[in-house]
């Protein structure tokens, strides 16, 4: 999982020190089921055991809609894109070239542009698996080292490899003050 903490100023909805941690998981057609279900479950469970509530939910660019995940799971996403109402944005991976998923999102340019515009102090933008490639397309990991699963290497253009390296068994580690990476064994 790669984590980037925002840098450009943008207005955010105040949550206060006692408000819930607001986590939004980005959804798109072709998203991998485990990449969006796992953070939903883990963060929701953490909220049960924490003294601070965690408000975890799905978001989609544009209007709320039904998305179809990589293996056919249909999910109704009832929250449109409002990054100013998030403390954490999680970008899952999924899809292969020619199929719905990250490459469709990158080629359309809308999600990378929206993520780049969402950056602000206090916002954490995180990715799972090939979601890190969307962060690269958004310009959020330029000149930093990150990790993507080895099978995704052949799908990435040379431009992405300026931002990424792939080592399947490297454990999570900080690589920059704003970025932490991990390989598929730890993500």
Give a quick precis of the structure.
This protein is 24% helix and 23% strand. The chain has five helices and eleven strands. It has a seven-stranded mixed β-sheet with strand order 3-2-6-7-1-11-10, sandwiched between helices. It has a two-stranded antiparallel sheet with strand order 4-5. The chain has a two-stranded parallel ribbon with strand order 8-9.
Give the key terms:
11 strands, single chain, 187 residues, disordered N terminus, two-stranded antiparallel sheet, disordered C terminus, alpha/beta, seven-stranded mixed beta sheet, globular
Folded structure, characterized:
By secondary structure, the protein is an alpha/beta fold. It has 5 helices and 11 strands, in the order ββαββββααβαβαβββ. The strands form 3 sheets. It has a 7-stranded mixed beta sheet, sandwiched between helices. A two-stranded antiparallel sheet has the order 4-5. Strand 4 (65-68) and strand 5 (74-77) form a beta hairpin. Helix 3 (110-118) crosses helix 4 (131-137). Mean pLDDT is 78; it is low at 1-10, 161-177 and 180-187.
């Amino acid at each position: 999982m790669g984590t980037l903490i925002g840098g450009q100023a943008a207005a955010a909805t105040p949550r206060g020190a006692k408000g819930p941690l607001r986590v939004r998981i980005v959804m798109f057609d072709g998203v991998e089921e485990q990449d969006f279900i796992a953070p939903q479950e883990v963060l929701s469970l953490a909220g049960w055991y924490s003294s601070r509530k965690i408000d975890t939910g799905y978001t989609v660019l544009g209007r709320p809609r039904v998305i179809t995940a990589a293996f056919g799971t249909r999910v109704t996403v009832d929250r449109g894109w409002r990054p100013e109402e998030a403390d954490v944005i999680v970008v899952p991976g999924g899809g292969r070239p020619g199929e719905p998923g990250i490459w469709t999102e990158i080629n359309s340019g809308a999600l990378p542009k929206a993520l780049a515009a969402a950056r602000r102090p206090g916002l954490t933008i995180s990715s799972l698996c090939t979601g890190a490639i969307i962060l690269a397309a958004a310009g959020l990991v330029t000149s930093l080292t990150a990790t993507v699963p080895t099978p995704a290497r052949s799908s990435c253009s040379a431009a992405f490899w300026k931002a990424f390296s792939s080592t399947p068994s490297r454990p999570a580690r900080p690589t920059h003050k704003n970025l932490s990476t991990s390989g598929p064994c730890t993500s």
